[in-house]
Amino acid sequence: MRDISIEFPGVKALSNVDFQVESGKVYALVGANGAGKSTLMKVMAGAYDHYTGSIYFNGEEVSIRTPRDAKNLGIEIVYQEVDTALVPYLTVAENIMLNVLVNKMDKKVFVRWPQIHKAARQILSRLNIELDTNTIVDELKLAQKQMVLIARAIAEDCRFLILDEPTAPLSNTETDELFRLVRDLVKNHQVGVVFISHRLPEVFEICEDITIMKDGKVVTNQTLEGLTVNKVVEHMLGQKLSETFPKRHVHLGDVLLEVNNLTEEEGLVHHANMNVRAGEIVGIAGLVGAGKTEFCKTLFGALKTIDGEVVLKGKKLKVTSPYSAVTQGLALVPEERRREGVLVEEPVYSNLSSATLSKFSTPLGFIKAAAERLNAKKVITDLGIKTPHDAQKVAFLSGGNQQKVAVGKWLIADADIYIFDEPTKGVDVGAKHDIFELIGRLAEQGKGVIYASCEFTEILGITDRTYVMYDGTIVQELETKNITEEQLLFYSTGGK
Amino acid sequence: MQVSIPAKTKKAKFGTQSMNFVTKWGSVLAIFIIFAFFSLRMPDIFLTTSNMISILRSISIVTVIAIGITVSLTVDGFDLSVGSMATFADTLVISMFVWHSLPTLPAILVTLAVALLVGAFNAFLIVKVRIPDMLVTLSGLFIFEGVAMTYAGGGSISQGMPRLDGTPTFGVIPPFFKLIGSAPYIIIIMVIVVALVHIFLNYTKYGRYMYVVGGNKEAARLSGIPVERYRALAYLLSATLATIGGIMLASRIGSAQINAGAGYLMPAVAAAFIGLSVAGAGRPNAIGTFAGAVLVGLLENGLVMMSVPYYSMNIVKGSVLILALALTYFKKK
Question: Which of A206, A237, A268 is the last residue of a domain?
């Protein structure tokens, strides 16, 4: 690909990018949020038709303007959101053979199911995946769905496979399984793989060459040999990396929150014990799937508690719904911000007041519009939310700024306990720093903060004390200053 | 080259700007165009004070019922049972007068109380039993229509008419009640309803919560908003508004007719959806719905005057709805 540029209304997403892939190799494509990685790969997969520049295939210039063009050349892409590409109520076989069913039927009218299943089974065995082709895709786990998509890519003559952040939702064993698959594809089928990821250790584990992007341009194009994680981060940021955890000195107060034996209805969380002191930031560390999100939601009343008690300031809480949790002094910044945290179709100011609207209303329920807007402006400056004005729809903000809105709406809630579930997911470095600052400030005000994350560096950087979750319960309590990332990983993977 | 590029973008910008203008104000523009068209075609019968009043009078019932639908739309629901509710209210309030000789105020209060029960029934099925909104209210459409008819004994009710089993009736419809359905009062009621609902939706926290629930239920729930309470509230309000529409209808026709309210459902749905596009709101709102009702009412009135047969009018009404929806959704792409 040579000299690729593309523009969207108001943004130049890519400018003069050169990129090349050889078959039989794994390439890493990394960069901060908004660097243009996904856009570049979408151009390659034919998702856009308004770019400029030229693409060569085997030395010949080709035109890729539609997904069909890309597929004909053997370029397949597996997008980050696997669910958008799968038909949930069809079987594994039908999903794998979907393209064949759609495009290769020609004049045939009747589908010959035994053949379809046989072909699907062959593909799966080629990839060493054990999966019944009769299973309905809806029942599969996330990692398995990804495998189905990769299998679909292979079903057609695939020469280049693009994986857009494939490991983000996967657990460690699932990631290993995926990597085994990728290595197999590269070695035995001579496929060229482009691997987009934020997780640099993985990049070093599986890739040979790396392309680093920043602001729609390629910073460097080289082999991974001789590079270090820190070097790569420097390239991504364009500046020296200084770990950005603001230091604070807070005097810890009395125990604010006590959780005893908390158990969720379906056992997603069971027998969990913890406590939080005033001014303390308590980490909940654990791998994906350990039950951190479920723990936060159970505490907040979004999942049903069947056993255990929650005591806040010496008073036993009765939390039956998020509504009752809020009225009793809890606040949750959820993980899935677009789905759970913000209202994308609403302006920034009404998002920022959505959890605390009573503060801006007269006793009769009329909204004090001026007060509401004033608060919105204050929060926007306090958090450094980048938005042209406070009436902008949240849908048009970047991921990091959406997250700041999701956090910002709780700031004036006067809650005693703030629960953050993966607040830095999909957020760029600058916004991360702002969010850490903010959490620090809450602690300074004597609030209790629960910080759930699978990013261990963050847990180590920001918390005072950490609980490790494994398999739905809290298995370990640790003073943060005495531990290392390796120890956290040890307990998170079930070590005792 | 360098000269031609800015010119090109400028032109494109102008294109999108005028497109934006059309999607934003298209339905309002349509009202003016239709108004001007009929005024020029039939200046001496269309453009008269009495006809203007008659248009406003005829749209007032549609508007009130459409506002009910609008409220259900704000929480991302859809109340299809409003037409049948109006029929039911019509039957009930007339029977209170004719069969039970109640004075105006108690009769209206009884009718509103029953309406709240019916709204609670819808809300219960939607919020607690978790049947999708549209299916519950579609079933409600049949149930309430049937209940109204069964209650009336399968026929209409009017003053002096004996009941089905032959018992004579002595109740009269009070002249005060008949005032409700006559101009200017019926128009005043409509204006008050529009204004109150507009204030409720835009200037109170309850209205804001309803939009939030409609925008994203999960986010609303995790913001600590009691989502189910507001969904239930929306259906109670839509039932109440449909009932007010039914009472206005009863007063206007002075009797209870079989399926009297059914004919209001579709114009009301049209008005509520046209309302989405007015001023580029993109969401259900009272003023927009009123504009939608004006549009539908103008068309109906003008077409009748041009002696378009009633059976062909639905073609025009349906087409206008499609046009308005195109304005709302085309931009969203």
Answer: A237
Cα of B67 to nearest chain A Cα, Å: 20
Q: Which residues pair with A7 in a beta bridge?
A: A12
Q: In 3D, which of B70, B57, B122, B118 has the Cα closest to residue B91?
A: B118
- Indicate if A271 and A183 belong to the same structural domain: no
Q: Strand, helix or coil at B299?
A: helix
> With bands split at pLDDT 50, 70 and 90, how would you rate the model's confidence at B16?
low
Q: Is the predicted pLDDT of residue A429 greater than 80, yes or no? A: no
Q: pLDDT > 70: what percent of chain A?
A: 92
Q: List, in order of start, the domains of chain B with CATH numbers.
A: 35-332 (1.10.3470)
Q: Which backbone phi and psi does A280 adopt, to 5 degrees?
A: -105, 145
DSSP class per residue in A332-375: EE-S-IIIII--TTSBHHHHHTTTSGGGGB-TTSBB-HHHHHHH
Give Cα B214 to chain centroid, integer Å: 19
From its phi and psi, is residue B40 left (phi > 0), alpha (psi between -120 and 50) or beta? alpha
Both A59 and A99 in a single domain? yes
Domain that holds residue A283: 255-492
- Could you say which of A204, A237, A270 is where a domain stops? A237
pLDDT tens profile A261-315: 888 887 788 888 999 999 899 999 887 767 888 899 999 988 888 888 888 888 8
SS3 A89: coil
- The interface residues of chain B toward chain A in range 165-204, judged by CB-CB distance below 8 A, are 203-204
Residue type, A53: G
Cα–Cα distance between A165 and A152 in angstroms, integer?
Answer: 18
Q: What is the pLDDT of residue B12?
A: 47
CB within 8 Å of B204: residues ≥ 6 apart: A361, A364, A365, A366, A367
Residues in chain A with CB shorter than 8 Å from the CB of B209 are 357
Residues of A with CB under 8 A from a CB of B: 300, 302, 321-323, 325-327, 332, 334, 339-346, 350, 354-355, 357-358, 360-361, 364-367, 369, 409
More confident residue, B151 or A2: B151
pLDDT grade, residue A179 (50/70/90)?
confident
Closest partner residue to B215 among A326, A345, A358, by Cβ?
Answer: A345
Cα dist from A177 to A96, A228, A287, A335, B94, whole Å = 19, 25, 16, 25, 73
When pLDDT is averaged across residues A341-370 and rounded to a whole number, the result is: 85
| Contact state of A345 with B220 under an 8 Å Cβ cutoff | no
The answer on A277 and A212 residing in a single domain is no
User: Domain tally for chain A?
Assistant: 2
Tokens of A398: 């970047």
Same domain, residue pair A119 and A224: yes
* A361 to chain B, closest Cα gap in Å: 7
Asked whether the CA dihedral B300, B304, B305, B308 is positive or negative, the reply is: positive
DSSP state of A81: -
Q: Which residue has the tokens 């850490």?
A: A436
DSSP A161-172: EEEESTTTT--H
CATH number at residue A397: 3.40.50.300
